[in-house]
Design goal:
4-stranded antiparallel sheet; Lipocalin; 4 helices; mainly beta; 11% helix; 46% strand
Length: 401
C-alpha cells in the first residue's frame, strides 16, 4: 500500500470520485445535513460506565479529532452531565510524531483509571498503543507502550498484558496479522517477555485475552484463526502452557460466567451422545482446558438470529433479531442449571446492547423504530426494571403514522 505507484493510483481515483460526487446538486445540502446531525449536541452520548463514572469519546467543531471525557453516573442519569476532559486526541500527534486518530480505549475494569489507548495514523488498521493514567491525565512513564503495527494488546491484570506483536515482518502471518502470543509484565522489556504461543506458517492471525468472572477465577484464552471462518481456541494454564479446547472450528466463544464458556455454534456439534443444532447458544463447563457438561440455552428458529451475547454478574443475555424486530432473552444459574428468566416489557424495533458495567447486573441498551426516536435504556436485572436514560430529539411529527 505504501508503494508510490499505489499511492498515485489511490490519489487519482479518490479525486475522480470526489469530482463526480461534487457535481451533484444535492451533494452540498446532503453533506451539510449529515454533518449537522453528527455535530448536534443533542445526540445521545453513549458511554462506558466504570465504577459509577461515565466515559465518553466526544467530537465537535472545536475538537474534530475528539476528546475523551468523563462525568459521574449520577449527573448523567439526571440529564445534566458535568463533563471533565481527560485528554485530547490531537495532543498525541506531537507525542507520536504522526497524524493519529483514536481507535479505542481499553480500561482495565478492576482499576479503570488505567487504560490502553489505541491510536491509528490516518485511518490505518495499524496502530500505536499507549498506556494512559486517566486519574493523573498523563501517559504512564515506562508503561505498556507499543510501536505502530497491527498488534493486539489486551489486559491480563493491572501489571501485565497479553501481546500479539505485529511491528516486525518476522512476527506476521502471510495475511499480515500477528502470529505470536507473549506475556509482558510491568517493568519488563519485550526481550524479557514470556513466549506463550506461535501459530503455524499457514495461519491467519492470533489474539489473546482474559475473561474475568465475578463468580470465580479468571481464565486466559487464545484464538488461533486458520482462516477467517475457522479457528482453534486454547486456554492458557497458570504456567503459560496453551491447551486446545475441543470446540467446533467454526464456533465462537461469546462469554464466560460461573466457570462456564458461552458458545455460539455455526454448525451442529455432536459430543457425548448429545447433539446441539447449528446456530444454538450453549453454556459448557470448563476445567483446566477440559470441556465438561453442556447445556443448550437457545436454538433460534427460522425467523430468529442471535445478534449479540452479553454476560453480567449473574445472567447471560442474548440479543435476538426475531422476525425483523429486536428482543432479549436471559438466563440465570439456579439449582445446578441455567434457568430462563422473565424480563420486563421491552420496546419494539431494533435493539442494541451498548454497555455492561463490570461486576453488576445493569445493562444499557439502545432501541428505535421508524417512528420512535433513538432511546437509551438501563435494564437493571437485579430488580427487573427498565428505565429511560436518554431520548433523542424527534426529527418529525410521527402522530398518525
Amino acid at each position: 500500500l505504501a508503494a508510490p505507484a499505489t499511492q498515485q493510483f489511490i490519489a487519482q481515483e479518490h479525486a475522480a470520485t470526489l469530482a463526480r460526487f461534487c457535481q451533484s446538486p444535492e451533494y452540498a445540502a446532503l453533506r451539510d445535513a449529515i454533518l449537522a446531525q453528527l455535530q448536534d449536541e443533542r445526540q445521545i452520548p453513549f458511554c462506558q460506565e466504570h465504577r459509577a463514572r461515565m466515559y465518553h469519546f466526544h467530537q465537535s467543531p472545536e475538537f474534530p479529532k475528539g476528546v475523551y471525557r468523563v462525568c459521574t453516573a449520577a449527573s448523567y442519569r439526571a440529564g445534566l452531565p458535568e463533563w471533565q476532559t481527560l485528554f485530547s486526541v490531537a495532543d498525541f500527534d506531537e507525542i507520536l510524531g504522526d497524524d493519529v486518530y483514536l481507535d479505542g480505549v481499553s480500561h482495565y475494569v478492576e482499576q479503570p483509571e488505567i487504560a490502553l489507548l489505541t491510536l491509528s495514523p490516518a485511518g490505518s488498521d495499524a496502530a500505536y498503543t499507549v498506556e494512559f493514567n486517566l486519574a493523573t491525565r498523563q501517559i504512564v512513564p515506562n508503561g505498556f507502550h507499543f510501536p505502530l503495527g497491527k498488534n493486539h494488546i489486551a489486559w491480563r491484570d493491572e501489571n501485565s498484558v497479553w501481546v500479539c506483536p505485529a511491528w516486525d515482518e518476522r512476527q506476521l502471518t502471510p495475511s499480515g496479522y500477528p502470529r505470536e502470543v507473549w506475556l509482558l509484565r510491568r517493568g519488563q522489556t519485550f526481550d524479557e517477555a514470556q513466549a506463550i504461543f506461535r501459530q503455524p506458517e499457514n495461519g491467519v492471525m492470533v489474539h489473546a485475552w482474559r475473561y474475568l468472572d465475578p463468580q470465580g477465577a479468571p481464565i486466559d484464552l487464545i484464538e488461533s484463526a486458520t482462516s477467517f471462518f475457522q479457528k482453534t481456541y486454547y486456554q492458557i494454564s497458570k504456567t503459560g502452557e496453551p491447551q486446545p479446547l475441543a470446540l467446533p472450528s467454526d464456533a465462537d466463544i461469546a462469554g464466560y460466567i460461573a466457570g462456564q464458556l458461552v458458545v455460539q455454534l455455526k454448525s451442529a456439534w455432536h459430543r457425548a451422545n448429545q447433539s446441539y443444532p447449528a446456530g444454538s447458544l450453549i453454556a459448557v463447563k470448563l476445567n483446566k482446558g477440559t470441556l465438561g457438561a453442556a447445556q443448550c440455552l437457545l436454538t433460534p428458529n427460522a425467523q430468529q438470529a442471535i445478534e449479540s451475547v452479553e454476560t453480567t454478574r449473574r445472567y447471560i443475555i442474548a440479543n435476538l433479531l426475531d422476525n425483523v424486530s429486536g428482543s432479549l432473552k436471559a438466563w440465570q444459574w439456579q439449582n445446578g442449571a441455567w434457568q430462563a428468566v422473565a424480563l420486563p416489557s421491552l420496546p419494539q424495533g431494533a435493539i442494541e446492547l451498548t454497555d455492561q458495567p463490570w461486576g453488576g447486573d445493569v445493562l444499557y441498551l439502545a432501541a428505535s423504530d421508524f417512528t420512535t426516536p433513538l432511546t437509551l435504556y438501563a435494564l437493571d436485572l437485579s430488580v427487573m426494571e427498565l428505565s429511560v436514560m436518554r431520548r433523542q430529539v424527534a426529527q418529525f411529527n410521527a402522530e398518525g403514522i
